[in-house]
What does this fold into?
Amino acid sequence: MNTILIYDGTFDGFLTCVFVSFDQKLKDVNIVREQFFQDTFFAKKETVITQKAKADRVWVGLKKKIKPMELSRLYYAFLSESITVENTLFKAIQYIFKSDVNVASNFANTHILEISKLSKSVGREKHRMEAFVRFKLTKDNIYFANIEPDFNVLPLISKHFKNRYADQKWMIYDLKRNYGIYYNLEKVDIVTLEFDAKYNPTHTSKDIFCEQELEFQQLWKDYFKSTNIVSRKNLKLHKQHVPKRYWKYLSEKQPN
It folds into this structure.
């Protein structure tokens, strides 16, 4: 009988499901995040509680079998949030553990190939976020930025911004997933916020952001406009480098 393992959506939770499936010698497994689970009478159901120790045992086992770059691929693919990514990863992990040699880069395997494609997409989104995040200084002296990435890349960009802005307090908030990362000059923490119903993330509100920030935004718009050569404008190429879905959070794209 098919067994559905329901978990909390975290990477450690997923690895705990992998541990449980191996420990119980389950053959036909479907790993589902709790928010996507739909009840059925035709399968055995089990809610798996995340246990760090069990997750770590799976991760350590993988470290012994494959290269660091291949481990990263697994994690990047998980962050894609693809509806079938858990089962793709699970089948790939089964394949890796069954083999006596490292097969994590054997792209002839359907699941390994799919993981590679997903990880590349997530990697591209990571680099775009590192390039396109626009901070605005709040009245609380915190540099704040909204993002809505296609994939859950906040865990991947945290180190980049901590290193780059080590002397400033900042927060990057993922509106799509309703959580953010906050750096307090010492460490990065996960945070959640409740926004006022009138809050517009595309605007630089005088109620939230300091006067200096409003002046800077206007200076940046003026600079962007002055360096723009209309006769050499190539909108198609521009959209390739700066996809339109990011424009609403770029200050230089906002109307005066």
